[in-house]
């Protein structure tokens, strides 16, 4: 099987202008590198907190690049320029609110402001899109928590079978699937 393309989208005004170095994209790749045993490669995008740019990146990664999984970081809070959840909803056909619920619950053990994140997830065709907060430390908190459900979700939407290192993350698939 060819290496699976995975979309890694940083949404940040300052990182996209080069004011600071993007630490979010590399942090997502580090978590995926720990968890996945299936060969994969990142399709990295860095965009400002602008709905059209975020939506265009998500559409391109899903429709043209064929990414079964697209992970975003940043732009999930309540500030006026935080629009990643709106962009995600606009491009998705179906939402999966359980992802946001679990990630907020896990993050609440780390920081009380976890409730400020409107992070969500949804599907566009054969792609699962998952939002993470912008703080680089939030990335492993959130992605480790939801990853056990991601391979089966991708099975269900017709994507490739993703295998994980069971010492790091046990992917749950119901018996017989
Ligand atoms: N991609 C990133 N790389 C490095 N640090 C980041 C990144 N995104 C966020 N941070 C850090 O986490 C903090 C909170 O993230 P948040 O997404 O709220 O940033 P922000 O205030 O919206 O600014 P911006 O959109 O310019 O990143 C930032 O102030 C910054 O210190
Ligand atoms: N695990 C974790 N979740 C977190 C945080 C964090 O530091 N760690 N920061 C919170 C804060 S302060 C905000 S404002 C929201 C939204 O962040 P974003 O706008 O960078 O996506 O995520 C929240 N969730």
Automatic annotation (TrEMBL):
Pathway: Cofactor biosynthesis; molybdopterin biosynthesis. Its EC number is 2.7.7.75. PROSITE patterns: MOCF_BIOSYNTHESIS_1. It is an enzyme of class 2 (transferase). One of its GO terms (molecular function) is molybdopterin adenylyltransferase activity. GO terms for biological process: Mo-molybdopterin cofactor biosynthetic process. Gene3D superfamilies: MoaB/Mog-like domain. The keyword Metal-binding does not apply. Signal peptide: none annotated. SUPFAM superfamilies: Molybdenum cofactor biosynthesis proteins (SSF53218). Residues 7-153 form the MoaB/Mog domain. CDD domains: MogA_MoaB (cd00886). It catalyses: molybdopterin + ATP + H(+) = adenylyl-molybdopterin + diphosphate. Belongs to the MoaB/Mog family. PANTHER family: MOLYBDENUM COFACTOR BIOSYNTHESIS, MOLYBDOPTERIN MOLYBDOTRANSFERASE. Catalyzes the adenylation of molybdopterin as part of the biosynthesis of the molybdenum-cofactor. This is Molybdopterin adenylyltransferase.
């Amino acid at each position: 099987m060819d290496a699976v393309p995975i979309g890694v989208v940083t949404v940040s005004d300052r990182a996209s202008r080069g004011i600071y170095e993007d630490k979010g994209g590399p942090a997502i790749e580090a978590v995926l590198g720990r968890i996945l045993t299936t060969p994969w490669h990142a399709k990295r995008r860095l965009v400002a907190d602008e709905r059209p740019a975020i939506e265009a990146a998500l559409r391109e990664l899903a429709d043209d690049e064929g990414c079964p999984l697209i992970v975003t970081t940043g732009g999930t809070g309540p500030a006026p320029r935080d629009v990643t959840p709106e962009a995600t909803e606009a491009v998705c056909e179906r939402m999966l609110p359980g992802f946001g619920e679990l990630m907020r619950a896990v993050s609440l053990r780390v920081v009380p402001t976890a409730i400020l994140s409107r992070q969500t997830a949804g599907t566009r065709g054969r792609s699962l899109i998952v939002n993470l907060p912008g703080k680089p430390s939030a990335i492993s908190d959130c992605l480790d928590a939801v990853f056990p459900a991601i391979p089966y979700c991708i099975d269900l939407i017709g994507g490739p079978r993703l295998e994980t290192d069971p010492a790091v993350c046990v992917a749950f698939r119901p018996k017989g699937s």
